[in-house]
Amino acid sequence: MKKILVTGGAGYIGSHTTVELIQAGYEPVVIDNFIYSDGSLITGIEKITGKKVNFHKGDCRDKEFLVELFKTQGPIDGVIHFAALKSVGESVQKPLLYHQNNIESLLVLLEVMKQFNVRDFIFSSSCTVYGQPDHIPVNESAPFKRAESPYGATKQICERILEDSFVDGFRIVSLRYFNPIGAHKSSLIGEVQFGNPNNLVPYITQTAAGWRDKLTIFGGDYSTPDGTCLRDYIHVTDLSVAHLLALKFLDSRKEDTLYEAFNVGTGQGVSVLELVKGFTHATGVNVPYNIGARRPGDVEKVFADPKKANSVLGWNAKLSIEDALLDAWNWQKKLTK
Ligand code: NAD
Ligand code: UFG
Q: What is the mean pLDDT of the chain?
């Protein structure tokens, strides 16, 4: 049984991936400092899998904590690094906090991995590294444009650090997520928003549930078919499976050191308006909305060319947007209860 350290595993994508890891026979060791989570998703993972989660509260920037963890947990076979601050808007208000947390976490983690000769590493990157690409669908060889936010800059810098550090004997996969949405089909884990939701789908479900009066669609005058922004929305369970395939990919490779980046998206561009209408179609619940001003920092349109992940990792998105919206709605109803 392979032991995988999962940082940020009490959060949205980390919790879903931990479920997939346990169900595939891995032994995850989960850490989180609870800065943007609490224990509720850990409880959800335990209910879904029937297994106690090997969880340790601590910070990735805390070298002593990590050293002790690597010592006491025995040999760790690989690391999936989700832990980061991820709010684009907050990063504009608190850029130093974002740089400090996201970059120092990575540096300390790599240092401790090196000390314990743990070499396989999967990094949560983002399509935000591309900025507004010249060509869409965007593929992995597109140059990084200037990041739109400090958050995006941290992902670019972390990828650069990883590319440079592959010479230290690391075997690294960066997964560039497009827009993860939805929740586990059990409704036992999903996206928990601390404070006001920043992302579209939690805003849609909270408005549908009556927690909010109205959704504001940020901008109706983009040069897209219906004037609203295009994104590539991917079910969080499909995204989680990509991490398992990335672990298998590293296992299958004999190189002492490597660095590969993969887009993880469906390849389908969906507008904000289409998503709102899709939600009503899937659930039968109306979402009052108005079209407001553009949100500063938004990219007009971006969706993935996922061919590299399809062919090299053997990964394909299996769940539809409708599945994701229904699962997000079922999760919201659970939260409302
Ligand atoms: P999340 O906020 O739900 O989970 C991140 C977890 O990391 C939280 O539980 C938080 O408490 C923890 N954390 C933060 N800093 C830490 C530190 N220094 N030490 C220990 N724990 C720490 O976010 P998520 O949506 O699950 O995102 C996971 C990863 O995926 C992040 O790296 C994020 O940047 C990346 N990502 C997310 C999206 C998205 O839309 N959700 C898109 C692209 C990339
Ligand atoms: N939107 C609205 N109204 C809202 C919220 C969002 O119209 O109330 C629009 C946005 O303007 C954007 C689209 O919905 O056009 C998607 O916005 P999200 O905030 O859900 O997602 P982003 O594409 O801005 O960013 C997300 C994550 C980032 C990540 C990026 C790429 O928040 O962390 O996807 O993975 F980097």
A: 96
